[in-house]
Amino acid sequence: MTDPADLAHDVLLKIAAFVKSLPADQLADLASGEAKLTLVPRGGRAAASAAGPAASARTRPLSRPVAEIETMLAEIGTRAAAVQYLNDERLTVPQLRELAKVLGVALPSKSTKEAVTTKIVDSVVGRRLDSSAIDRMVAR
């Protein structure tokens, strides 16, 4: 049987590697207590917090107003640039879902961050680019 001290050491090394990979804003949230690390069993969900589901459903406000994000997306010329813009904003999945809701983008209930970002970009930027391409083809 493995010594608990050895197990604790292995766990702390894994946690340190994970925390080291976090962006500065998430590290600041952990340090200030606004965020916490949670143990989730493999293939399972985290236990509900004592504060209840309403506390876990709260999201931080968007880094910019929705209108500003929408304007930026309208000015971006490629899908890749739009994806990069949203990634640079470092929005969480709940924030991206809120943005999609305000922009009128329908999402499946269990979408990954990448899938939500792609849906937003396709709906806001992709349709405009597709329409422009069709207009250019018709004009020929």
From TrEMBL:
> What is the recorded name of this protein?
Rho termination factor N-terminal domain-containing protein
Q: What is the lineage of its organism?
A: Bacteria, Bacillati, Actinomycetota, Actinomycetes, Micromonosporales
